[in-house]
Amino acid sequence: MKKNYIQKVQCLAIALVFSTIAFAQIITDGTYKILNTVHNEVMSVNTLPPGDPGNPDNLVVGRAQMATNNTNDDFQLWTFTHQGNDVYKIQNVGDSSFLGIKDGWCGVFGDVQTGFAMTSDYVEFKISAGSIANSYVFEIAFDAFCNFGSTNVPIKAFDIDGGNSGGKLQTFDVDTTNPNQQFQIVTAASLSVNEVAKSDFKAIYNQTQRTVAFNSVDSSENNLKIKVFDVNGSTLKMIENTSITNLQIDFNSMANGLYFIQIERGNSRDVKKVLIF
Predict the structure, then answer these.
(1) Whole-model pTM?
(2) Which of 44, 48, 96, 254 has the smallest number of Cβ neighbours within 10 A?
(3) What are phi and psi of 227, to 5 degrees?
(4) What share of the chain is helix, strand, coil (3-state, %, to 5)?
(5) Do the beta carbons of residue 45 and residue 92 sit within 8 Å?
(6) Right CATH number for 190-276 from 2.60.120.970, 3.40.640.10, 1.20.1250.20, 2.60.40.3080?
(7) First vs last Cα of the chain: how many Å apart?
(8) What is the pLDDT of residues 62-118, one digit of tens each?
(9) Counting Cβ atoms within 10 Å, is residue 272 exposed (0-12), middle (13-18) or buried (19+)?
(10) Cα–Cα distance between 224 and 240 in angstroms, integer?
């Protein structure tokens, strides 16, 4: 009897593990920046006013376009909401409208734009792993008018026009090896207006004490500003005018998960990822 009970518990545990894997989201719901490393630019919005030659429908829309990262620009922030099967709706923080494809384009060179309502037929995208580490491909996954919505078989992907700096986002044939279709989905905290400092800090996690300590090549580092962010970019802790010597950050009051620690000195910043478990 005891043996059968143990076997049942083991089977339930295995089933739970596979269930968790099967239903895990490829991206956790939250607000992020969309980074392409070819020119180290993030997806932003270039607003086209009514009457603009590039806006023949005379609508207040914004064309998705790559731009230099700016931490003060809410048009570079995007909120991801999972719809199931790795399909997401993506809302722009700057104007609260949704990202979509102009005219529900079924061929190549459809424009990626904001200005869509949440209920539009053209605002759902499938996110797939790219061939570059930690990168993703945004695929069209919605268009019922082209008979893709019922089977969720995407055929096009976001692509930076010409691979140029500041290029607009358009749709093109899916090519998971094309660097212009590879995007990283990162927290705002992991990017900085200024150049990121040379990574000469080491973050050391003590699981028993649930604290993070630091080592630096220069033990005299002082006047540092430390911020701790969660994966949604929310500031959880801030320590000012501190030195690296004997500095420890306590995570006992925080849940297990991934956090970002930003170390600011003058005009440069260094960001460390730490996994608390």
Answers:
(1) 0.60
(2) 96
(3) -125, 140
(4) 15, 45, 45
(5) yes
(6) 2.60.40.3080
(7) 36
(8) 889 999 888 888 899 999 999 988 889 999 998 888 998 875 445 556 789 888 889
(9) middle
(10) 6
